[in-house]
Amino acid sequence: MSTLETFVLPAIIAPFKDVTFVIKRSLIDYPVFKHIMRSRDPIVVDRTNPRKDFEAVLEGGTARLKAGRSVIIFPQTTRTATVDPETFNTIGIKLARKAGVPIVPIALRTEAWGNGRLLKDFGRIDPSKPVHIAFGKPLLIKGRGAEEHGEIIEFILKKLEEWK
User: Fold this and answer.
1) CA distance 79 to 61
2) Are 95 and 55 in contact (CB under 8 A)?
3) Global pTM?
4) Burial code of 97-123, b = ≥16 C-beta within 10 A, e = fewer?
5) Within the chain, how many helices (H) and strands (E) appear?
6) E strands, the chain, where?
7) What does pLDDT average to over the chain?
8) Long-range contacts of 99-103, Cβ-Cβ distance < 8 Å, separation of 24 or more
9) Predicted local confidence at residue 91, as pLDDT
10) Per-residue model confidence (pLDDT) at position 77
């Protein structure tokens, strides 16, 4: 939903487990954030070749998971204030299945930090809006992961409905 989760999620997870992200290439060259993002040893995707990005996530993600690091993947391609389950990709499920690790759903409502007009990452912060983050139970992927994908979407939608 906003830039907020990029800063907050590692702060919540890192005391328990090292963590990184799957990010688009432009973020490792972005002024201000580039040093922070590079320090996380992210899995970088270009968004120009889906096959190459898929391989990068599976290979890089498996290596990081086997090294004991968590990988945060946002299943929508861009930040949005609305949730459309049809736009959620399954790359996190595929990575968890390949690496043999559970996947932990995360529901977020972080519109307190809005998108900027000129620079999307530098929007207005409205302290009157609450921030909500919830972690679901870890799910082991069975089969192709369709059931777990449905459970993740159901968890997110349920939390967003509670937070209205």
Assistant:
1) 22
2) no
3) 0.87
4) bebebebbbbbbbbbbbbbeeeeebeb
5) 5, 5
6) 19-24, 43-45, 70-72, 106-109, 132-135
7) 88
8) 99/61, 99/62, 99/65, 99/66, 101/65, 102/138, 102/139, 102/140, 102/141, 103/138, 103/139, 103/141, 103/148, 103/152
9) 94
10) 67
